[in-house]
Amino acid sequence: MKTVKEISRLTGISVRTLHYYDEINLLKPTKTTDAGYRLYDDTALERLHSILLFRELQFPLKEIKAILDSSDFNTKTALEEQIKLLELQRNRLDEIIISAREILTKGTENMNFSTFDKTEIKKYADEAKQKWGCTDAYKEYIQKHYDSADKTDKLMQIFAEIGKIKHLSPYCEEAQNLIKKLQNFITENYYTCTDEILRGLGQMYISDERFKKSIDDAGGAGTAEFTAKAIEA
After folding, report:
1. pLDDT digits over 107-145, tens only?
2. Adjacent-strand bridge partners of 32
3. Cβ-count burial of 102 within 10 angstroms (0-12 exposed, 13-18 middle, 19+ buried)?
């Protein structure tokens, strides 16, 4: 059995992230001690390994959970598919590096934009997902997951919550908790929202008039600016 801190040291994942995985039922501890310490056995570590591989492939957390919880999920088969996807990504990255070096040495006359094409990777990923999750529950999840209007509404609800506390300091606990909620929502529903990406979004929220208007419409005038300050904080 390993503790949260031991797993954090082993994998580089923060303790806070492991606690969050527990909260959303993505990775539950094998047992919790009377003192409240989470403990994980080898089965839990195997699931964590699958999670990390899916994260490396940029899968949203909700989609990872749906795949791992599918009754048809097979660890060995999934690992084979993950390796293939990682190899495709590595090959694509190698081609991009070669293309960039050619531009550096030969100039921009014969630039090759085909190296940025993700069609093959997307096609293979879609086929793999069908193998990983062909149950009715997974199909229902996929249908709900890609309901963009619903996601947008929920995103705007978060900005509405932020708007209610914009009179407070952007450094306060309430503000920081909502910023973390925003970051987690983006990661789960759109793409991996690192701190660096989040910082960039914060700047875009105030520099892009369309974003600023949408956010201010959701939370009231000044919400976009307050959100940017809270992110920077």
Report:
1. 656 555 555 566 665 665 666 666 555 545 445 545 555
2. 38
3. middle
Question: Are 52 and 11 in contact, with CB atoms under 8 Å apart?
Answer: yes
Is 2 within 8 Å of 45 (Cβ atoms)?
yes
H/E segment holding residue 40: strand 38-40
pTM: 0.49
Spatial contact of 116 and 96, defined as CB atoms under 8 Å apart? yes
Amino acid identity, position 222: G
**For residues 183, 185, 190 and 193, what is the CA-based torsion angle, rounded to 10 degrees?**
20
119 Ramachandran zone, left/alpha/beta (phi>0; psi -120 to 50) = alpha
Phi and psi at residue 47, to the nearest 5°: -65, -40
Q: Helix 15-23 and helix 4-11: axis angle, to 10°? A: 120
CB 77 within 8 A of CB 130: no
Tokens of 65: 């959970």
